[in-house]
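Bug #77: duplicate submission created two jobs. Keeping one. Sequence:
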Amino acid sequence: GENINAYMRQVYLWMTAALGVTAAAAVLTASNPAILMALFSSAMPVIILGIAVVGLAFYISARIHVLSSGMATGLFILYAALMGVFLGPTVYAYTSASVAQAFIVTAGTFGGMSIYGMATKRDLTGMGNFMIMGLWGIILAMIVNIFLGSTVLDLSISVLGVIIFTGLTAYDTQKLFQMGMSAPEGDALAMRRGAILGALTLYLDFVNIFLRILELLGNRDRRRN
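Kept job's structure:
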């Protein structure tokens, strides 16, 4: 009905806004040598920034039911900006053409899977749970690979990452669609909270697909490495 359409529209609107903020922050960081030097020349600022990004995502997810509409929105946009700063050096390492290409491929993949998640009559819960298990596997493999430094393992992580987050996009979309169907009509605050939470979920799927595709298809900028 109209309610579900309004809800999904809000989800995609906020997700797109967050991606825009992240892109702007990443470009600003990547094109500013002073910021790059200040943040990424030693481990401590990177660790603090990483903890802030992860912590904020968990905080928004855990506290969404008690946050005001403005607070939920503000924290989400702040999160998107911090994520952009965090990803600045990654984006900086690749050619602009590579970044643009990875973004277009990601948008196509994400869009297709999101439409599938909304349109399919199949229950994707089983697949979603399987993908979440796979995600934990990838995280473990990434930690192990910090010590091994294996390029083969690196490549496998990227390929599996694309598959897992593509699957999660369909699963998450279906879950949000079902959530939207049971959303209380006329409750603007509940709608905004739900939309921000939904946007955060899909935003993370999008960013992760983008990073893995950039690793697989991207050409590193020789001058910057």
